[in-house]
Amino acid sequence: xxxxxxxxxxxxxxxxxxxxxxxxxxxxxxxxxxxxxxxxxxxxxxxxxxxxxxxxxxxxxxxxxxxxxxxxxxxxxxxxxxxxxxxxxxxxxxxxxxxxxxxxxxxxxxxxxxxxxxxxxxxxxxxxxxxxxxxxxxxxxxxxxxxxxxxxxxxxxxxxxxxxxxxxxxxxxxxxxxxxxxxxxxxxxxxxxxxxxxxxxxxxxxxxxxxxxxxxxxxxxxxxxxxxxxxxxxxxxxxxxxxxxxxxxxxxxxxxxxxxxxxxxxxxxxxxxxxxxxxxxxxxxxxxxxxxxxxx
Length: 296
Prior knowledge:
six-stranded antiparallel β-barrel, globular
């Protein structure tokens, strides 16, 4: 956030496609509440790039308890334009992503930045890394404070790391840092909801339609996203879990929250059969309701 004395680091984020970054929704909310405007920085060993947001998207829905309150996912997708020297000799570093449900006992790493001080208008910051073991999974969310798929990791993260990348042993982003009480554990929001978000295209290759998604960036080779992910004919994003992930999902989610009436998560074959039978009719209904956009 830019202030009268210089920049203040309010949180972290991760660039996953050219001009497309993930961060925590509450970081953006805190910047707006302070009367500031977000500015994103990506760092090199001896320089930095500055980015100005042109589109911000998150998911929200009505509260189950308060008529005048909306509940938001804590993962936000931002598209932004470069507002500094391009530094053409230094390639833009983009983080690979993976759609996964981390298993209990998996080790994960959280990466972010901490604001230290201001010196002659320059922000002094420190990169921070924490590591820990997954201790609980909440694939249907953890109440209204964390309504999106998330998980608990036995590690401590500190102020400024919110929105930073949570990566697996292969360095793939599986989530972002959401919260951590003093001493831990930390709670991480999975990237699942981010696949449903669309933002203004930040570069010509991503602006051929009115808005673009991470799946659209992947389709043109500008984002790396691993995992068994589909988008059906009417625009819904689905993905298929491994046997171990599906077992953990079923053990961690309430029966009445499951996708299927009998309490099971649908398999790929069951979804394929459904789409083959009803897909064209659903696509027609989607078109009548306003369509689902272009290929992004």
